[in-house]
Amino acid sequence: MPQLNRACVVTIVVAGTAFLGACSSVDAAKPVSTLDPTTPPAPAKLTSADFMAVCQGATQSRAASYRPDTKPHKTILFTPLGHDLVEDTSTLPSDWTVQFDADRNTYAAIDTVVCVETKTEQSVKECTGYQDNGRPTANKVDLRTTVYAVSVRAAATGTELGSTELSDSDTTCPMFMSFDDDTQTKTYNVPPPKDDLIAFVKPFVQP
Length: 207
Fold this sequence. Notes:
By secondary structure, this protein is mainly β. The chain has one helix and twelve strands. Residues 1-28 have low confidence and may be disordered.
């Protein structure tokens, strides 16, 4: 049962003048807030994580609506890293994308999402000869040619606007790789051709 803090009427006489103080009962179990309950808190700024589920057909109601006949459009690109998708900020032209700004909700301008996902992969070569500051190591790279499923989706609705498949036959071993120790073997999937990816996305973002 909640406890009540009760105060009584107190009369204080100072220099012949009486001061009357009235008190009330306060429910100690209920916190008192000075905030205006009618003012909702400002929504958090959108980030890349808020758009990732669009690649699976989910919606992002806070994104800009996609209207093909209006410009400019802003997009975000997700590419595979292991079994996850991550934002890729270096492949598409910078004026097609946005950058996070702590003072502005820049991601709210995004109206399209580009999804690059692994469809099939095949190991074709083992790369060796990697060194650590000139010292030979036993590190290896499992080089895999990869077919990617690429789609462009409307960010607000998750609707697929277009799709294609891309792959690259280049089997050149990567010159630089990051390893956790001197004996690790890492998988490297040959990325889709950058020019082909940009050409596919362009009609949706920069018609």
